[in-house]
Amino acid sequence: MKSERIPGFGTRAIHAGQEPDPTTGAIMTPVFMTSTYVQEAPNQTKGYDYSRTCNPTRTALEQNLASLEGGQHGLAFASGMAAIHCVLNLLQSGDHVIAGNDLYGGTYRLLRTLYAKFGLETTFVDLTDLQQLEAAFRPTTRLVMLETPTNPLLRCCDLAAIAKSCRKRGVMTMADNTFATPYLQNPLALGCDIVAHSTTKYLGGHSDVVGGALIVNDAELRQKLAHFQNSCGGTPGPMDCFLVLRGTKTLHIRMQRHCENALTVARWLESHPRVARVLYPGLKSHPNFSIAKKQMRAGGGMVSVELQATVAQAKKVASSLRVFSLAESLGGVESLVDHPTSMTHASIPAAERKRAGLEDGLIRLSVGIEDAEDLIADLDQALRRLK
Q1: How far is CA 3 from the centre of its chain?
Q2: pTM
Q3: 3-state SS track over 283-313
Q4: Which entry of 48, 104, 183, 280 is annotated as an active-site residue?
Q5: Comparing C-alpha atoms, which of 263, 372, 365 is closest to residue 317?
Q6: CA–CA separation, 322 vs 337, rounded Å?
Q7: Set 201, 222, 315, 353: catalytic member
Q8: pLDDT (tens digit, 9 = 90+) per residue, 290-340?
Q9: Do 119 and 209 belong to one domain?
Q10: Of 176, 338, 360, 378, which one is the catalytic site residue?
Q11: Catalytic site includes residue 52
Q12: Is residue 234 domain-shared with residue 362, that is, in the same domain?
């Protein structure tokens, strides 16, 4: 018997988890603005009892995201940090975590300022170097947390190799797939246990919602995560879920344009005399280009640039852009610029940033879907201000 054909990514983005409303025929998933649900008798429900536990709009989103990642189970959260916090709730005092040394400052802050005081130990290493990973394992290691591409240096870790190394030791792997999105990369298919997303970014895609998600294949792991999701209460409201669902419908189209524009911008920047280095996984000059090519379908929409400039000059360039807006976050249709060491990664001590290779002259570009010629013209006028 032939297996049922799996629909393509674009079809799943638009339809997975979503059917026309059976009551009205509405094509769009309704926004179920309710906190509680009437029961015919105690514990006799129609699948829903209280909206912190579950909500039909959230169910549609969770099924949609699971489908896009090729996973069995999705869980939606009020933010990306709420999702990562839920994963860390799986651990015990005395457990050990290995994390990338080039990761989002909020994740670093959560590990260092909250979980450290509860006895969770973390070792930060360059996870693009498998020898460093191997050397960091301890008998108490329970979790490896990674981003790929990383934020903001856009390093690309070998997901399959890391997952294999962890699996033989019984260690969980959590891959933050926010930068790549499921359109470009699928960590579960490469052996990872948990995929995390800030749905605020590319999945929402319009800078109008904050959210997070976890996707897993293992039913028991899903049950444990759902317990903490409900117990800690970091769940999204139905309108937030609706906005992310609206965003995923165009994810494949937007990502195509993000990737095209980012590659065009990166190539232009690479030839600019005031640019010391361009970090973009789609460039052959990228140190992890072969890994990126193996596990990603394109280079993504993020470009990091090390300028031949002082901190003050780098800030001036970031502040002088007109089409790019100076702001935190990323992944929206509009282009953004960020100075990580004074903005998104300021919570990481300067010495640790330097050890990780994050220089003060680096700016991070979230390349939007405007006309590429206008983005280049904007960068050109800002870089001309460097004397």
Answers
A1: 32
A2: 0.95
A3: CCCCCCHHHHHHHCCCCCCEEEEEECCCHHH
A4: 104
A5: 365
A6: 10
A7: 201
A8: 999 999 999 999 999 999 888 888 899 999 999 999 999 999 999 999 998
A9: yes
A10: 176
A11: yes
A12: no
